[in-house]
Structure formats: C-alpha cells, structure tokens
Amino acid sequence: xxxxxxxxxxxxxxxxxxxxxxxxxxxxxxxxxxxxxxxxxxxxxxxxxxxxxxxxxxxxxxxxxxxxxxxxxxxxxxxxxxxxxxxxxxxxxxxxxxxxxxxxxxxxxxxxxxxxxxxxxxxxxxxxxxxxxxxxxxxxxxxxxxxxxxxxxxxxxxxxxxxxxxxxxxxxxxxxxxxxxxxxxxxxxxxxxxxxxxxxxxxxxxxxxxxxxxxxxxxxxxxxxxxxxxxxxxxxxxxxxxxxxxxxxxxxxxxxxxxxxxxxxxxxxxxxxxxxxxxxxxxxxxxxxxxxxxxxxxxxxxxxxxxxxxxxxxxxxxxxxxxxxxxxxxxxxxxxxxxxxxxxxxxxxxxxxxxxxxxxxxxxxxxxxxxxxxxxxxxxxxxxxxxxxxxxxxxxxxxxxxxxxxxxxxxxxxxxxxxxxxxxxxxxxxxxxxxxxxxxxxxxxxxxxxxxxxxxxxxxxxxxxxxxxxxxxxxxxxxxxxxxxxxxxxxxxxxxxxxxxxxxxxxxxxxxxxxxxxxxxxxxxxxxxxxxxxxxxxxxxxxxxxxxxxxxxxxxxxxxxxxxxxxxxxxxxxxxxxxxxxxxxxxxxx
Length: 590
Known about the structure:
Elements: H1 2-15, H2 17-82, H3 85-92, H4 97-113, E1 119-123, E2 128-132, E3 143-146, H5 155-162, E4 166-174, E5 179-190, E6 193-203, H6 204-212, E7 219-224, E8 230-233, H7 263-274, E9 280-287, E10 290-299, E11 304-310, H8 312-315, H9 322-337, H10 340-362, H11 377-415, H12 425-442, E12 446-453, H13 456-463, H14 465-482, E13 488-493, E14 496-501, H15 506-522, E15 525-528, E16 531-533, E17 537-544, H16 550-566, E18 572-579, E19 582-588
Parallel strand pairs: 17-18
Antiparallel strand pairs: 1-2, 1-6, 2-3, 4-5, 5-6, 7-8, 7-11, 9-10, 10-11, 12-14, 12-17, 13-14, 15-16, 18-19
Helix pairs in contact: 2-6, 2-9, 2-10, 2-11, 3-4, 9-10, 10-11, 13-14, 14-15
C-alpha cells in the first residue's frame, strides 16, 4: 500500500516540471532561509553592538561635558582665591587682626560666588579650620575646629598637602560639620612653602542628581579617581568616602564591580584614556556576572575618570527586530512561489541594499546612498535605515561640535582674566614659554615689568568694588594700548599686572615702563558717572636671559616692585642685583 503511494508520487514528480521547479525552489529557498536567518541574527547583534558602542562613546563625552561644566567653574574660582594676596598674607601670619579681617572679607566675597555658597580654609601653621556655609550661620565665628595629625579624620588635609600645588578633588563627609560633599581642595603655596588649603564643595546629592543620574534605561554613570575609588554613583553606598586617607585594601573601587577576569581590561582602558592614546574607550565586560558595555573617558583637569555601564539589551530592545524577521520569512516563502528572477529582483537585491546601508553605518559612513522608495516593507525598512544613518550622523556632528566649542571655551576661560579680557597668570605663563623658546633660539633678552596700582585698596574701601573693577579694566586697557604689538600683558592677580617685553634691552624696558607710567597718571580714570580718579602705579622691571627661567625673573621683578613702593610709589625701579633684603637698581620717577 505504502509502496503504491510512493510510486504514484514519483510518477507525478517525474511528470510535472512545475512541481520539480517548485520543489527545487522550495529546497533552494529553504537553504537560503536558513542562511538568511543566521545572517539576520548576526546583523541584529552586530548592529546592536555597534550602535551601543557609538552611544557609549557619546554618553562618555556627554558625561564628561556635564562633569566639567559642573566643577571647572568652581575649581577656577577656588584656584583664584588660593592666589589671593590677602588670603596668602593672613595664612602666613594668622594672628594679625588686620590681615584676618581682610582675608575673611575676601573669603566671604568668594563664598557668594561659589555655587554651594560655602568655603573652608585650613591654616597650615596652626591647623585651624575655618568654614562658612550657604546660610552664613558661622559669620563672625568661622573658626570651627583645629586639625590634629593624630586624628585619622584629619588625614585628608595632610594627604592633600603632600600632593603639591593645584586643586585636588575628594568626596568626603566632614564629621565635625555634618556635611557630605565633592570637595575641591586647593593648596596655597608661597615661595615654595605650603601655607594651607582652601576650597569649596558641591553637595554630593546635588552633584549626583545633576550629573550622574540619567533617565535612560540601562545606563549607569559613575566617576572614579586615579586609583579607581568610586567618587560619584547613583547608589551612594558604593561611594568611597574618605578615599584620600584609606588604604587600597579598604577602598571601594570600580574594579570591585567588575568580574576578576575583566579587571585587567578595565585597567588597560583607563590607562589608554588617561595617557591620551584614546579619547574614549568602550568594551564589553562582565559586571556582577552580567555582560555590559563599559565606556570610559578621562577628565584630565579633574584627575577623574567618567565610566558608563550600559545594558545594550535594555537600550536597544531586540524585540523591535521581530517584525523585520517576520517580514523576511514572508518574503522568503512568497519568493519560493514566484519565479527565480522575480525573487531576485524583488527581494534579494533590495535586502542586499539594506545590508549595505547597515554595513556603511557599521563602517562609520553615514551617507544615505541609494534609497529604495517603493512603498512596501523592505522600502520602508531601507528608508528607516537611511534616516537612522542620517540622524546618527547629525547627532554625532552636533555633539562633537558642542564638545569642541565647550572645550575651546573652557580653554579660553582658563587662560584669560574674565574682568579685563587679557591673559591671566596661567595664560601668561604658557605664552611666556613660547616667547622664552624664541628668545633662546635667537639669542635675545627678555624684559619683564610688574606693575601694582598705588593704594588700590583705598579705592576699593572708599569708592566700592564697582569703581575698583572699573579702575582695573581701564589700567589693563591703557597698558595694552601702550605696549608694542609683540609684547604680552596679563593680570597677575588683584591689582597687579605683568608685561613681557620681547627682544628687550634695559633702555627699551625703561622707555616702555615710563610710557606706561605716563599713560596711567596723565589722564584721570572715568570710573563711574561723575567719578574721576587720578591713579599712579609702581613698576618693577628686570631684563633677563631666557635660560634664567620665568620663576627667577618674576622673583627679581617683584623685588624691584617692592623697592619702588618703599621709595615712595609712582615710580619705576629696574632690578640689577639682589642683596638679601635690598635691591640695587635704577629708579625712575619719570
């Protein structure tokens, strides 16, 4: 019975070309369907991982931008305050009541400028800790307690002091004050001696809310320090408080979140982004046993890493591809019924075009290419892929431009004085390095002028800071209009200005300094409506060889400036030689 049925089927198969063709097409497309399924899954996985990697890189750049924006302004203000002459003078002589009054006034002035409306200052000589907060509840009673070397909770100060000049970040909770913040600790140094540490803080909860938290499902951002100690993360229980004073075995690090086998990979990623080998890096690592995409970047100005953990499956739901998979099955089944040519022209060619679009996106080519505009499933898929490529390209370009613009703005702000628009101390120091190299190459000398507005504090005290600021801006403008095009002018700090005279001799330096004196005192300053002030300045000058170095040149010029002040102000003193407490030089009243 069974044999007779098989015989009839064989006879029908042999006698029907259509059946043989259909069976052949069915067999062929069954094989194609199998290959297409594997290819489709690979494309889905590859596309998901590629897009996730691109997204991770942009998320790292975005977190870096947010982190820098939140902290750099505060660090800049704290660095400026750490160089304040009034604060440095008080830190060197804490018992002087006059210095104390001026320094506390300066600190209170900056407190209102800080985002947290708070500051702290530790005097190295005594260990006294001064603090005031947003509520100004410690006004007149800023001395809160005294640090002790034998108190482990005060270890942050001594560890920070050992790090040297500059500002250093630390997440800590102050037990004595009962506050938890991202602290910016700026070391105050003068003449190679540490005078103390001052700074401010940003409330940790606010920082996490504004910078770390994200509404994107499957994305977790965190910040760690150079050792990997966690400084900011959504789960505050994982933050490594007091990380400066902890040993490595008691720290809460990002490596503890990574499976042991992948910890060397993360360490290599952090090294790569910190040494400049890679701007950002992203790899798949196992975090608490789950395979996640981990992105890393380095905030060089802060000494922190920003790290992003991304669950690609949560970000790109693979179920979104199910309609496409169903469509492909429908196409394959339908194409098996149609002639081979129709299948090729109507299905395969168009799928290949869509795959080429995906391949271009994977290769970083976001150009649209030929677009299938037929209004069917494959046409809409191709159009969606083309729009996706265009959207990724536009978003990438916008983000890169925004990062570039913000980086350039931060660089400009870090090198220029915001009040006068001329170079600040940092920008001047960097510009001098190039001038020294050119002078050394050409065998030329460099001149340096250090200018201090006479009795500027009296102007501030009697006329107000608004008038004082107007005087500072006008002094900067007159100096800039007086010096030669190739010379450099910068605000050195407070009411001090510094001028670098290229290709200089003592006579040239003397002439330029005299012109500056005349420019300042000849015409009164229109400081405000109806307020005309005659100002004078004291100038110290020094001609030096570039190999002597800027530090020594500034020191000698500063000695000459103080000699000019001692001689009665409103004059120029050119430095010749230093004899302990005196300066031999030529003095010009001009």
